[in-house]
Design goal:
The chain has 220 residues and is α/β, with parallel strands linked by helices. It is built from ten helices and eight strands.
Length: 220
């Protein structure tokens, strides 16, 4: 099944993606590329700039030159850079949040987008809106920024991070039909939370890796 390059901005997500690839992409080699400065700089500047996009593109080009058959950008904050990088290489380059956004857009209705980092909200909302427009839909999107959870994570208090996230999701569930977790780092909390049955909770890692399985199978 070839080699999948994964472009990360947070070291903590590497074990989860390695486990997912082992389960969903047996026989596929993985190559992890990490540059934590891209997310740090995006947060400091309130979003992407040309320099950050170039650095992400450089990693994708490096992966392609190294023999990767496809590349997955696992951070939603730098997701738009993946679309630029696609124009520079012959291999497929995808955003991890692409399938999640497409599913939310197809479902329509009231969509809550949750992030703990401000720079992740706008790219995720923009992607959902673009997917919705392609389908002639106009969902109502509610943004929820849980910055205190990010501060707790940085301080090493994962229990407090998870508590803030669970409380925020419970509040948001009262007014939406679908909740989108904008960051891959939030996926593990989703596995242990109980929400009303009418609310669909979406996270990106598994659906993001499944899209790469389809791409790699076709290329193989």
């Amino acid at each position: 099944m070839g080699t999948l390059a994964l472009i990360h901005t947070v070291h903590a997500v590497i074990p989860e993606f390695e486990a997912l690839c082992g389960r969903l992409l047996p026989g596929t080699r993985t190559a992890h590329f990490l540059d934590e400065t891209t997310l740090r700089d995006a947060m400091a500047q309130g979003g992407l700039n040309a320099d950050i996009v170039q650095r992400v593109c450089d990693l994708v080009v490096l992966a392609a030159r190294g023999g990767a058959d496809a590349a997955l950008v696992t951070c939603s904050s730098i997701g738009p850079a993946a679309e630029v990088a696609q124009r520079l290489v012959a291999i497929p380059v995808r955003r991890v949040d692409g399938p999640m956004a497409a599913f939310a857009a197809r479902r329509g209705g009231r969509i809550g987008v949750v992030a703990t980092v401000a720079t992740t909200l706008a790219p995720t909302v923009d992607l959902i809106r673009r997917e919705a427009r392609r389908r002639g839909k106009h969902p109502r999107i509610v943004r929820a920024l849980l910055a205190d959870a990010f501060e707790a994570r940085i301080a090493g208090d994962l229990a407090r991070h998870d508590e803030i996230l669970r409380e925020g999701l419970a509040r948001l569930a009262n007014g939406v039909d679908t909740i989108v977790l904008a960051q891959a780092t939030m996926a593990r909390v989703a596995r242990g939370i109980r929400l009303p049955s009418r609310v669909l909770l979406l996270s990106s890692p598994e659906s993001g890796v499944r899209q790469m399985r389809r791409l790699l199978t076709r290329r193989g």
